[in-house]
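Lesson 9: reading folded outputs for more than one chain in a single document. The general rule is that every protein is listed as its sequence immediately followed by its structure tokens, and records are never interleaved. Here is the first one.
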Amino acid sequence: MDYEIETRTTEGFKVIISYDPYGESPDSWGNTDWFLGKVSSKRYGLGREGWNVACAQNYLQYGEGIWDYDTSDYYDHGCDSEQELREKWQDEYEPYEYEVFPVELVDYGSGGAQLRFTDTKNANAYIYVSLPYSCLLSEVVYRVKHDFDPYAIAEGLLKTWNTYLEGRVYHVCVKTQDGEDLDSCGELYGEEETEDFIKQLIEHYKNKTCLQHFLVTRADMSSYWEDLEVPVYLGEASLDWAKEQIGRESAICVTGPHDKNKIAV
């Protein structure tokens, strides 16, 4: 099956964009700082194993989820009153480890599925964002300095998951003009991340050169080697470029590039 979407030339480089048929879910990264917990769904196996809806209860404020005193059945928690429910919440509440955000998976059948933020009553999963208090001191300083925003992190992760659910996971390959692979990467989530990656690769390679050897023949039929630093995007298709650099008036023939060690003059 052909997964290629687009082939373009950017600053001399050949760029091929394809769907990534092997793109794994964002949970495959194994990130422990923020992640989607296990989604309660018979059709979709999404989210991190061992982190179901019940695991989020200890990170909820009083009045949310099972701690909602208007809807909770106190007896389900072994409590005889609201006061006992509040005391149990205080015993189990862990305010310094994660902030959690309730989400629900909306299944459109053949139309796919989408994750969206919801309230604790409709949640079938939670996004977990570790708080600075649970990190090493260096991480705390970094997060505070960079205006740590748990909701913005959760929002970004939700966007990434929906990109994955929509099948918008891409693979990029950057080649020289003659088709030699320079670099590639898969599991790029969404068009914005894909284009950013392409820009980074082009920026990385555009000023790089490689040493190539050309055999130059003068009008008197004498020959010599000319070593040139050739732009890497040309690859082996660098002969015309070399002729321009050497100058046609000083040579009647330029051949190459060659492996200098294998050719005797």
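And here is the second record, again sequence then tokens.
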Amino acid sequence: MVIAFALAGACEQRKAEPERLPEAAGIDVRETRSENVPEVMRPGLRSAMGRHAEQASALTRAVALGLDEDVAQHASALLGEPSAARPLPNEAASLNDELPPKLFEDSEAFRSALVDLRSSASTHESVRIVDSFATVLRACRDCHRAFGRQGGGGPER
């Protein structure tokens, strides 16, 4: 319950400064430092991460305030965002070949956690929703540690 109040307070503070949502979360969407993300892909990734940060902030607020229908809606919005596809065997070379496997693993973990959260929201069971949201947050943390500004140089390939 303490976590919910802390999240709610953070969300209210962020609501007052909507243009700074990603920065308030410690995420600089203007910069992707990971050397493991090809330079040519970084502008598109920055744009996607800006939308991602806004949607993730809205999801956090909905969870903190117990707005179950909004939780499901925001989880669905995040699931609707395009994600990198793993290269297929025998496929012609593509930019996705240059991405480290961990990026795909983190993306799949995040999407799986969102599916579970969306399902949990339909039950209106706050404990289940918070547990599912914690799994989403772990997936966020793992990816941002590896590839975001807060991360080091990215994982080994």
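What the second record shows: The CA atoms of residues 33 and 149 lie 6 Å apart.
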